[in-house]
Amino acid sequence: MNNKMGDILNNDLITSWLTLTHIQMNVTNELEANLQAKHGLSLKEFYLLLFLSEAPEKKLKLQKLEAMVGLSQSAVSRLVSRFEAKGCGALERKACDADRRSIYTALTAIGEDKLLRAQDTFQETLLATFPEKDVKELLDQMLRMKQQS
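and the corresponding structure tokens:
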């Protein structure tokens, strides 16, 4: 492939990637706004509740949560602290029986109920804002460009 053709493919691939990133950002912003407006939850708080609900015994160590939520350990700790400060009773911290230095964050029954209600909003928002056709076309186009390079 000549260099000019390669430059065109690279620019098209970059443009497609940026478009995909823009779509993801728009959907994320809608999810954040709707969760905040209807449930007083940030998107990261929603993810925290979701990951805890899927964990064995509905509890995880902070170190595990940081990798799942995509935040640093101190940011996850602050997130859990802010959640606790809301006083809604959705989470509780528990000392690890095997290692007293480790702390678990556990989902309570109140947290499960809050998550169930928020999941409906999450689902509705995703269905309403996710441009399935656009994303499919974009991904197909990107895959074709990748195969041509």
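(Above: one complete record from the training split.) The first helix runs from residue 3 to 39.
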